[in-house]
Amino acid sequence: MKALDGETTDAIGFKMVTHREFSSEWFTKSMAAMGRQNENHRKQWELAYVLHVVTAKRLCQKGKRGLVFAVGKEILPQIFASLGCDIVATDIAVDDNPNVAAGWIAGNQHAASLSALYTKGYKGVTWEDMQRRVSFRPENMLRFSPWLQAERFDFVWSLCAIEHVGSIAGGQSTVLQSLDLLKPGGVAIHTVEFNLASNTLTKLRSDESVWRMQDVDTMRLAAINKGFVVPTRSWGAGHTHLDRTPDVCQDTGQRYRGLPGGHVKLECDDLIKTSYAMVFEKP
Asked: Rounded to the nearest 10 degrees, what angle do helices 76-83 and 42-56 cross at?
């Protein structure tokens, strides 16, 4: 789409992954903090961006508290534990939605306990440290428990989870509910699968709903109307070869073909998509 012709900046706010981002100073620092090598992969970018936003805004320190939805097997809870803040990690309970949970379990992207999130020796965090800093509980992203509704956090995040709750409207509702859990000065970061090919036609299925520009804008305006701050918004999709040459979904085996040099955009289900990040602040 012509509206997406442009490039990102290093500013914190609404933006999508582009190849340029992988050479930015903030990304390099985040990768060093994670102890990972850059693979020019958009899923790495999502992890790095959350870490960057949280550390840049000094939200993970002793006495601070974070919440993650659909945690799967993320490394961020253990990283944040090493930085001194406390984390509540959540994922859907198997008996809450067996069909949905089964898919994530099959893909090794589901957690049912704290032990599923712990890697021995990583970032110098012992099992005792992990138990002290990180707690795990099942939560449905469409129906927050009474306990969760009463809690407040300095930061909240989810990585490409809100497009899997059944509908775009459901994902937007989840984001708005998550904003209510923020303390004053708190920040929410949510990434979502984003449609680069059309602002009208998109994938709308119970297992995945790919957001369009109009859906992101609806989300942004709804948050602003509730009194939250959206720092900046960018639509630039980048100009390099990896930005303009999407990887391709596969019917069997790997979920995508794999391109020499990285994975930034993906052609799948008759559309081209990528990762888009949204950042909200509570005054």
From this structure: 20
